Amino acid sequence: MDFSHTHYGTVDTSAIVRKRWASHFLLRSDPVINKYLDRKPSQTLEEALQFIRSIQANNLLYWAIVETFNGKVVGTIGLFNVSNEGNTGEIGYELLPEYQRQGMMNEAMKKVIAFAVDILGIKTIEAFTHKDNQR
């Protein structure tokens, strides 16, 4: 499924707003966040921006998770690896350590899953976590 030229608007709750952001580097370079992810942390802002550019060209949807009272980007959540038929997809996410265990990701996941099922018609959504990731 190709999302590169589609705008689905904003999914808005107290925790999540879809938008572009430059502070993505903090998430991509944080050693705690990247410890269990299958990627190398970004070493430069340019590396993080390359990832953002690749999002715009590929078949995935990506949202910033923002504190609504100050607009600070504290995490991301994405829907990717969507099958050509649009039946299945994978959800992935990251959240700055100081914002973990506050229910923000739970809220964001519910909204993105509802969007995937209700709007895109996805029937199966997978998520994978590292066995040692206890946060």
Automatic annotation (TrEMBL):
Stated name of the protein: N-acetyltransferase domain-containing protein
A molecular function GO annotation: acyltransferase activity, transferring groups other than amino-acyl groups
Domain N-acetyltransferase: 15-135
Origin: domain of life: Bacteria
Protein source organism: Siphonobacter curvatus
Annotated Pfam families: Acetyltransf_3 (PF13302)
SUPFAM superfamilies, A to Z: Acyl-CoA N-acyltransferases (Nat)
InterPro entries the record matches: Acyl_CoA_acyltransferase, GNAT_dom, N-acetyltransferase
